[in-house]
Write a structure and sequence with these properties.
The protein is of the alpha+beta class. The protein has one domain (2-101). The protein contains three helices and six strands; from the N terminus they run E-E-E-E-E-E-H-H-H.
Amino acid sequence: MSRYNLTVKKNTTLLHIDEQGRISPKDDTLRDLGVAFGMDHIMGYFLDIYEPATADKEESYLVELCTKFQGLTKSHMIQLIEHYASEEDKVRLRVQIEKIVMDLPF
């Protein structure tokens, strides 16, 4: 299994993928989010969006998507990564994104 964490842009709007595959803002709330993505031999590609732990509360997952159980597509995964990733992460993770496009393990 490979897992990569993104440095998320501060105060980001949470996105939602509807049944038709359209990505839209889930709400207008701006929040600090954590995003992790990767590939697992059971779940396929996965993407997790979570609120990081603070002194008062534990980390809580807001969205957990994978190709096997939720039907996450490669194009949706790339769109979500590009939405949440900082510019530095887009450069740093270029090779992993290219491997997602070519359906290669990373």
